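Posting for a labmate who doesn't have an account.
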Amino acid sequence: MANPVFNDNLVEQTHILEGEPMTINGAINKTFILFACLIVSACYTWYLAFNGFTDKAQMLTFGGAIVGLILALVIVFSRKAMHILAPIYAIAEGFFIGGVSAVYAAAYAGIVINAVIATFAALGSMLILYRTGLIKCTDKFRSVIFTATLSIAIVYLIQIIASLFGRGIPQVFTSSAIGIGFSLVVVAIAALNLIIDFDFIERGSQGMLEKKYEWYGAFGLMVTLIWLYLEILRLLAKLSDRR
């Protein structure tokens, strides 16, 4: 698998023994709940940023990023209290997304709405490709996307470490042709991770996972969408710099 939220053997190892099973509609409903939580908190940080409360907006942005990361790790490794932790994760990430979006909006007119539209366009396109069978989530597909996603994570990690010493990876994180090409690849890989998210939700319902995994599927989908949105923002910013 590619999305680190999901484990390849999760569906095979966990089956419902009693109570209600996981359903696709249930996972969709949970996704809408998480999305609503994210939008509300993102709008709040956005409001603070553009109404003179920059210190509070910055605090929520950085605090949201840290809390979101911690909660994501807790959810992935414990898979407990997901009905509570997943919404809190979405709220924390909303604070982060709202702050980041405000920074980009201040520098590039119209970039945020374009990134939102592009993110939902990618979501819809991947869903169509998955439902029509044009892209099949095979073991090989998961392996390739996992390797690509891990490689991207390593590149970002190297960049973060290098930046601590005042350095960075040449060209990749600039608005050069190489930098734009890198961002295009990252956006494509992030979008393809959605196929794995869809597959988990479908296989989970077919395999009769416990109902709590509706939250897990919704959480995994939100993780991918947030990553995709941020990468599209970065790509659009690079393209704007080239004009």
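Reply:
Got it, the structure tokens are right above this. Helices lie at 10-13, 24-49, 54-78, 82-107, 111-131, 139-163, 177-206, 213-241.
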